[in-house]
Structure formats: structure tokens, C-alpha cells
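User: Run a structure prediction on this.
Assistant: Running it now.
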Amino acid sequence: MPTLRHMIVNLLLVLLGALPLGVQANEAIWQALEEGGLVMLMRHALAPGIGDPPGFERGRCETQRNLSEEGRAQARAIGEAFRERDIPIGAVYASRWCRALDTAELMELGDVEPAPWLDSFFRGRGDRDVITQAAREQIVAWEKSGNMLLVTHQVNISALAGRGVGSGEMVVVRPAADGLEVVGRLDVRAP
């Protein structure tokens, strides 16, 4: 958890305009996450390529596009950043694709539950509307004190939040009665 001194220094830097906007935005998101009750829509860590190769089978990682060594290190570093800030995590769900499950497990933020409602629907792999509606229902129902981490895919995040993210980035949302409210974007890779 950031110390009072750390928070005061960052506040002064923000007020003086000395921190870049991305860092300022990240600090605001980190502070919101410390309070809990939010949902993080995270794109799996770096897995070079697009989609999955011919012969893809869910449950057989050797047939899928998987995390690179850089992606594995990225997932571990993101988890470490959450632990350093003592961000409360109430639940961790991941798409059943190996790159999403591996990302969530390498972050070491809690038990990972595979969730079909986070599976990719890229290139007709699943029903976009059904998957998006099921995920939205899970998000709206979140009322715990900790935060919920959902490790999924670019297409899913775009369908839910109306914006995309890079590998390992997140869109943080607040559950609302009429859907979800985007709180902001979190890029743990930012300084």
C-alpha cells in the first residue's frame, strides 16, 4: 500500500503538472481500486499473433496461441504491482483459453475460476451476444468489498466497455444497475 508520503509527493507532482497524464490516470485508478467494489477487465498478457492457429482446441494448449516468455514475465509483474499496493481481490475469473488462464495464474492474486462467459468469440469461436450478456450480468451482480479480476480477450473487452486495450492492460469498471460505468484504463506497465 502506498505510504502517505508517496501519495503526497504524487499529489504535488500532479498539481504541478510534473507527472505525465498516463501516470496521473493510473494513480487515480489505483486509488479507486484500493477502495474495492470494482471490476477489472484485463486482456491476457502478451501472446504474439492474432487469433488461434488452425486445429485449435480449447483445453489443449499446444494447439493455441500462448503467452511468450515476455508475456509470462508481464503477468508476474502485474500481479506483483497489485500485491505491492495491497489491492483487495475478491475473485479471479479467466477465459478458458490457455493464455488467459496462464495470465491469471501467473499473477498469483487468488484462485482462478475458468469462466465460459469470458471465452473469446473472435472469428466465430462463440456467440458474441450470449457471451457478452452473460459477462455483463456477472459484472452487474458484483457487490463484494474486494475487486473482481476478469482475464479475457480484446474482443470481449471491446464489446463490454466500448474500448480496447493492449496485452496486459485493463479497463476498470464500476457495476451499475443499468450496466457498467467505465472508471478508467489501467496500464501497469506505465512508470
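Helices lie at 4-15, 21-35, 69-84, 98-107, 128-140, 154-161.
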